Amino acid sequence: MSRNDFKDHFSAIAEAYAVARPEYPDALFEAIAAHVPAQAQVWEPGCGSGQATRGLAARWTRVQASDPSAQQVERHWAHAASLRGEGNVRLSVAPGERCDLDDGSVGVVAVAQALHWFERERFFAQCARVLAPGGVLAAWCYGDFLVPEGMEAAVAAFRADIDGYWQRENHEVREGYAGYDWPFEPVPAPELWLSARWGLARFLGYLNSLSASERCKNATGEDPVYAHRAALTRAWGPPDSERDLRWPLVLHLRRKPV
Questions:
Q1: Who has the most CB within 10 Å: 29, 46, 119, 160?
Q2: Which residues form the Methyltransferase type domain (predicted)?
Q3: Is the pTM of this model over 0.85?
Q4: Domain 11-145+169-197+247-255 is of which CATH architecture?
């Protein structure tokens, strides 16, 4: 796969993705860190604008983060420092199926909400190559949020409009990557949740960052978030109020044999 023929669902909404996606909980990175020493090198393919990179960079001394979308990498919070050669994060524009890291040089490959877009056979071959013996592949995903109380009808109407624009890969996320042909034996992983307390604007921004929202807009010429904005706003309550949101977060840990 060349850099120009990957399934690019996020370059057009890179700005929305950078500012609207939820942050990952500390418990996620602690679960990975329990198996990988802090001095290990991390490779994070499909890094996007860096939602997961923050937690990785806080726990490991060297993080190589890559994404096939130049627009996403340009919006990564570590982009300027990486260009100057500062900090512990190095960024590159590259697909998940290819990297220039040395054989056996990586302690953990961390894939946040991106594995479903990769050509897995080729990606898993890269993992087998770059992971050191005993190294860990950590891949996680989160599906639909739990609907806040009183918003059921408004959210259901919005979801009905975009439901036909989800792709096969999105359904794999909802299934928590069940049935994947993983390359290594599993390591026990905890049950996790992704949580956020947002205002209405951040919530609507999140809905705009969904790839199905963008595909629906491109296909119909109508912005589904704008079309449902009034109903979602009424259901939200006072526009300056905040709501608690939760997503089920599924973590897969796989260890390369020693």
A1: 46
A2: 44-138
A3: yes
A4: 3-Layer(aba) Sandwich (3.40)
